[in-house]
Amino acid sequence: MGSVFFEVKGELDNFYLFLRSIEVWLKTGRCHSEILAEQKMSEGELRRPGATIILWLKCEQTVHDERLNARVDSMLKEGLIQELLDFHARHNMHRIQDGKPPDYTKGIFQTLGFKEFHEYLMLSEEERNSEVGKKLLGISIENMKMATRRYARRQNKMIRGRFLQHPTRQVPPIYELDTTDVSRWDELVKSKAIEIIESFLKESPCPIEPLKSEISEEKRNIDGNSYNYCDVCNRVLLGDDIYAIHLKSFRHMRVLKKKKRLEKKSKNAEESLKCD
Ligand SMILES: [Zn+2]
């Protein structure tokens, strides 16, 4: 009966896999290893060059700032402050009474806004209703809005850094769609997105251009030396000779060995899952 789930090779490590396999079988009626093999294939497909495109919904900064502020306002209207007070009472109050600092590093407390309201949340109900309390609330709200806007800018920067300023060209094409004017959504976002996706699926040329890499040719090619990217170490190496030296270096070998060991380990685990 074991081969319905996977083939048992007697390793205790696989006991948990065995339990998981039974669970998968009960839920889906399918062999676990078969599902794992399928998942691995579709993940591989996604990473294959040319298999992915990115649609980046962008908005003019000032308009985006207004939208973010409006979102904070609607959160406030929906009872954000009361929610923060409740959480604060349940979690941080105990910590503070125990002499520990408030904890903003876990789960809900990482949510934008929590830190910004700390001083206000520390007030008594009476103090909160005073002029000083109200003023502090106003400042907290402004700080939360600012943190939200800053976070949005960081996200944009992250996308640029990762996809447009990446030294290798093996990043998916990224298409910018402008959401600034919502009244033109269908024209500027929806139909463009459909056009991009359709030509991608049909493998026909798309009239809409993806964003260009922000790394200039000069930068790629300083003194005839090219940028090299070591996928193993995730490092940029300027110049072919330096790259060649790197590939033979102790440091590179060590990372490579470690990666191979991990790959082998997961391959072994998969093999013991085979069903016949
Ligand atoms: Zn390396």
From TrEMBL:
InterPro entries: Dimethylallyltransferase, P-loop_NTPase, Znf_C2H2_sf. The keyword ATP-binding applies. Keywords: ATP-binding, Nucleotide-binding, Transferase. It holds the Pfam family IPPT. One of its GO terms (molecular function) is ATP binding. One of its GO terms (cellular component) is mitochondrion. SUPFAM superfamilies: beta-beta-alpha zinc fingers. One of its GO terms (biological process) is tRNA modification. The keyword ATP-binding applies. Belongs to the IPP transferase family. This is tRNA dimethylallyltransferase, mitochondrial. It comes from Arctia plantaginis. The lineage of its organism: Eukaryota, Metazoa, Ecdysozoa, Arthropoda, Hexapoda.
